Amino acid sequence: MTRDPDGPPARRRFLVQGAAAAVGALAGAARAEEAMPPGTPEWMTVPGADVGSQTYGTPSRFEADVIRNVPKGLKQYISASSRTPLQDLDGILTPNGLFYERHHGGIPDIDPARHRLMIHGLVETPLVLTMDDIRRFPSESHIHFLECSGNPSFEAIKGQTASDLVGLVSCAEWTGVRLATVLREAGLKPEAKWVVAEGADAAALTRSIPVEKCLDDALLVYSQNGERLRPQQGYPLRVLLPGFEGNMNVKWLRRLNVTAEPAYSREETAKYTDSMPDGTARQFTFVMEAKSIITRPSGTQRIVRGFNEITGIAWSGRGRIQRVEVSVDDGRTWADAALQAPVLTRALTRFRLPWSWDGTPTTIMSRAIDETGYVQPSFSDLTAVRGLKSFYHNNAIVPWRVAETGEVANGYA
Ligand SMILES: Nc1nc2c(c(=O)[nH]1)N[C@H]1C(S)=C(S)[C@@H](COP(=O)(O)O)O[C@H]1N2
Ligand SMILES: [Mo]
Questions:
Q1: Total structural domains in the chain?
Q2: Kind and range of the H or E run holding 194
């Protein structure tokens, strides 16, 4: 029997037993029974809200729990972050209001009319551009993930939900101007090797970007998922370096200094370096390696016996996801999950695997393989190479334990 990779397996029934159980559960709630056909729910008896009752739309009030996850232990403002609720999202795009945030000096309130981008250093013609100038260049839109390299740190594969574990990753369609276009306008001198980007926040966050990346797929972004960047994501202008660690994607961009050497800023010396077992520190680890996580079922969710679709996200800073393997027996055997189109380079890729749970306690997990052949490691394989002194760049497999009750929990905890 042929199977459409994007469609359901033909002639299969999934919830026949489950559906009967659902009706039984509803019968307890009289109000639910009224709403069930052929009854008439109250929302059918009066006209609905006016158009324009919300000039900027928000989700249903019944979805009020689907919000960014703000870690309680972190002193917010000084070193603030919030995480995307991965377990509540479908598809590959993150809604702008749920995109993860990471700020080192708060969120500046920038007037785009007064914002300027200066390009100077090893260029033929230094430039100062307004936002209008930037938007006059030819633009492009691309879908890419963005991930903090501390997602999670080596010490914190703790937490309950998928969001607690790896919620510092999101994916959007970004629109902007190729950084190469603007650098060519200024004219790079032959000695130009690095471009030092500086943000207009109180942290003046500064990162050095190799010129090869600047002339490749780097973007100066002003829009995200069709609308202007949110202040949290760098309004009115940010750097987007597809596949590179989140920290280098400088928000609130005000300056590009073209240099022969890196800046060796705080973010590339004291922070965002990886302590290795031999006592040295690995510096300038730009690319985020392949990674995946099952988002449903995942920590704090509860499954029932019978059919459950396993789904999750995979991504790689080196290119496209080639394969995602899923184990439902604690890593003993692995099956290929279906990859949902589109499978884009350096973007989240959604995977799905049909699964029938027989009620036996088990551990489920996924591992991503990218187009370079790189395989996402287990935590023990990763620490065999990296030791336990590292903080950043943990792309280990995430196991979820399924208890006899159907409750799903962090397999590391
Ligand atoms: N100017 C500036 N840019 C910044 C930061 C910052 O604090 N200031 N944080 C960096 C870090 S550590 C990450 S992971 C990403 C987060 O981007 P987001 O908040 O849009 O998700 O932005 C990076 N760019
Ligand atoms: Mo980050």
A1: 2
A2: strand 194-199
